[in-house]
Amino acid sequence: MTDTPRILVTRKLPQAVEARAAETYAATLNPADGAYGPDGLVAAAEGMDGLLVAPTDRVDAALIGRLPDSVKIVATFSVGYEHIDLEAARARGLVVTNTPDVLTDATADMAVLLMLAAARRAHEGQTLLRAGKWAGWTPTQLMGIQVTGKRVGIVGMGRIGQAFAKRARAFDMAVHYYNRRRLDPALEQGAVYHDTVEGLLPQADFLSLHCPLTAETHHLMNGDRLALLPDGAVLVNTARGPVVDDDALIAALASGKLAAAGLDVFQGEPDVDPRYWALDNVFILPHQGSATVETRNAMGFRALDNLDAFFAGKEPGDRVA
Ligand code: 8YV
Known about the structure:
Layout: E1 6-9, H1 15-24, E2 26-28, H2 38-44, E3 50-53, H3 61-66, E4 73-76, H4 86-92, E5 95-97, H5 104-119, H6 122-130, E6 151-155, H7 159-170, E7 174-178, H8 185-188, E8 192-194, H9 197-200, E9 206-209, H10 223-227, E10 233-237, H11 246-255, E11 258-263, E12 282-284, H12 293-311
Parallel strand pairs: 1-2, 1-3, 3-4, 4-5, 6-7, 6-9, 7-8, 9-10, 10-11, 11-12
Helix pairs in contact: 1-12, 5-7
Bound molecules: 2-keto-D-gluconic acid.
2-keto-D-gluconic acid (8YV) binds at residues 54-55, 77-80, 103, 287, 289-290.
């Protein structure tokens, strides 16, 4: 391609990423950061060679069918790509890339934050203080659950699951995991493999979800599976909201079957199920897992690396379709 490729950047990205995009490409940025709906995205894609999208853009089969022929690549600013219909992309010859690796540490850090905050009743403590209701230290106030030395179950032992396991070992936790396939012992680092989720759950005083959202993992944590956890377990979700059945989780938190949950992701984001607000034993954040300056820059650069390779006629490093 001799002309400078034209790319549409659908969301406002960190300044350094936008600067590089504008330097390399005829880039249409989105300084106001309003998410395009399907019609807006199709209209804005007119004349574009590539799209740099985010998980807030639904690139489903219908949208792919409406994209102008000029669009040859969709690079997503995320490791997850459940918002993109890969089959439809392949059928149309559309290349799709994601941003693995660079958000592994930030997301694993977030899972630790949620695990500790949920177990140690951080939400209740914050609320007490901020409401000006703290009457002073007492020996029995806000006693939580000790993390150190407990068993942690990890569902999905990919990059982020392994990074979380490494952090859990620093808390002397016994690591158990379920993954579709067993890891090499060198990667397992002593973690105990379970070949079914049902086998893992009774061992998990803490359960951290690190699997992608797929048809198989949708509502993976339903009422039946939550019931297999030890009484008083703590659930952590930095993966995707729909991996958990909200009705079942809310019931388990309300009944005390689960002691607490730490959640960074939700079904139907940004509309969080309002029943969570009534639960003191849930510590929730608005999908901040990868939100560090370092990581968001790295994600943007990684998406641009993929676009650069593609427009140079090379295979992008993170091609998923
Ligand atoms: C955010 C993520 O969705 O990359 C992912 O798949 O879940 C998160 O990092 C992403 O940062 C939003 O662009």
